[in-house]
Design a protein that fits this description.
The chain is of the alpha/beta class. It has eight helices and 25 strands. The chain folds into three domains: 189 residues, FAD/NAD(P)-binding domain, CATH 3.50.50; 133 residues, 3-Layer(bba) Sandwich (FAD/NAD(P)-binding domain), CATH 3.50.50; 92 residues, no CATH class. Helix 1 packs parallel to helix 2, helix 1 packs across helix 7 and helix 3 packs across helix 4.
């Protein structure tokens, strides 16, 4: 059995940033396992710009952003295995993987970083009536077909769901000569970034129909039309509001699901809200030495935040391997989301292990205007920050300093709420 200090599962933006940070934190024995044929993950098919403004202070395309981190990994001679599928992780960090060159591999790791990313929600999870004709794609699949494979899925397009990938593909399909008739969104608000709504829909005259969904798909061999209808507050279609659109392509952009089958099998506790691991301030799961970062932890809106979070996980894993953590860290503070805050990452904080500050990321459950993000230390409000707009499609954050935590030595609960 091969012995490795840190095994990173996933060679996308999270895995790459974690590897660089672990190496720079003094642990040289790092191995990346990637199931695809190249490093970079989903960024390889994201040829639009808008990446890197926070990390590199310049606007990059997805492949350019990925290449920056791939170069850093190669400059440090961090080894990686491509076309390698991880089959199992045990609670004591034995990783079983398989590829065509080495066959079955068993690796005993001192620390494991989960960076598997996420997948799109399929049609089968949406309960749309109709046959199962050709011409229905997830937005990410269509993105790969257009940007990497060089195929155009269709010419008359309807998009269900206003996630960022769906918005970006509305623009991409338009630029390739297709006609995008509309984007329908079940919720009364968009699931994507405001800038993508403006740049991908408004700039091209593509209508966004909020509180609408697809209620019927026509066609047996190939899709010929869809029917959309307005939905009420209960998210159920309202009779009499149906509209029919002839089309040859339906793209689905209805949410992302963190890839946590390996995590679940290993015994990692998952959040029912994010479907990602429950982690502490070091991004460590309930299994000692198993860390999580990126979209496998919770779905991010910006890859820059993925890299920032992954770097923290990589450094924390390195400290774990080197046993460079202070003793006597039994006290744990629980973070409690309330009043419109859906979840927080991390879910707990051990103040003795906070060196400088903790970034707490969260999402809200609906659109708020001119509201306040409030943080309570037990019953004492220590932060009351006004926000002009809060939306589910955009991740928010607050920063808690070690100094503020140390001022409350008996603190048990930190509550985040919208007021």
């Amino acid at each position: 059995m091969k012995q490795v200090d840190i095994v990173i599962i996933g060679g996308g933006p999270a895995g790459l940033a974690a590897a660089v940070a672990a190496y720079d934190s003094g642990v040289r024995d790092v191995l990346i396992l990637e199931r695809d044929e190249q490093l970079g993950g989903i960024l390889n098919q994201c040829i639009h710009n808008g990446f890197g403004l926070h990390t590199f202070k310049e606007e990059l395309t997805g492949p350019e952003y990925a290449d920056r981190f791939i170069t850093q990994v190669r400059d440090r001679s961090v080894p990686y295995l491509l076309n390698t599928m991880v089959m199992d992780i045990t609670p004591d960090r034995v990783v079983t993987a398989v590829n065509r060159t080495d066959g079955v591999l068993q690796i005993q790791a001192k620390a494991v970083i989960l960076a598997m990313g996420c997948r799109e929600r399929p049609r089968g999870a949406l309960n749309i009536p109709g046959y199962r004709p050709a011409g229905i794609f997830s937005a990410g699949t269509a993105q790969r077909l257009v940007n990497i494979e060089g195929y155009l899925p269709g010419k008359e397009v309807v998009i269900l769901g206003s996630g960022d990938i769906g918005l970006i593909m509305a623009r991409r399909m338009t630029l390739e000569g297709a006609r995008v008739k509309l984007v329908a969104e079940l919720m009364p608000y968009s699931g994507g970034l405001k800038r993508n709504i403006v740049q991908c829909l408004d700039d091209y005259g593509i209508p966004l129909r909020l509180s609408h969904t697809v209620v019927d798909i026509e066609g047996k061999e190939h899709i010929t039309a869809v029917t959309i209808a307005k939905v009420g507050a209960d998210r159920k279609p309202i009779p009499g509001t149906e509209e029919r659109y002839a089309c040859d392509t339906l793209l689905l952009s209805c949410g992302l699901i963190p890839e946590n089958e390996l995590s679940t099998a290993a015994g990692v506790t998952l959040s029912p809200v994010t479907n990602g691991p429950v982690v502490n301030e070091s991004l460590e799961t309930n299994l000692p030495g198993v860390f999580a970062c990126g979209n496998v932890l919770h779905v991010h809106d910006l890859v820059d935040y993925v890299s920032e979070e992954a770097a923290k996980a990589g450094a924390a894993a390195a400290h774990y391997v080197k046993r460079a953590l202070p003793d006597g860290c039994d006290r744990e503070i629980t973070l409690k989301p309330e009043g419109g805050v859906r979840y927080t990452v991390p879910a707990t904080i051990r103040p003795d292990r906070v060196s400088d500050q903790v970034t707490v990321r969260f999402r809200v459950g609906e659109v708020y205007r001119n509201a306040f993000v409030s943080v309570y230390f037990d019953d004492t409000r220590i932060l009351h920050k006004k926000k002009r707009v809060l939306a589910p499609g955009e991740m928010e954050q607050v920063i808690l300093t070690k100094e503020s935590l140390d001022q409350y030595p008996s603190l048990q609960t930190i509550t985040l709420k919208i007021e």
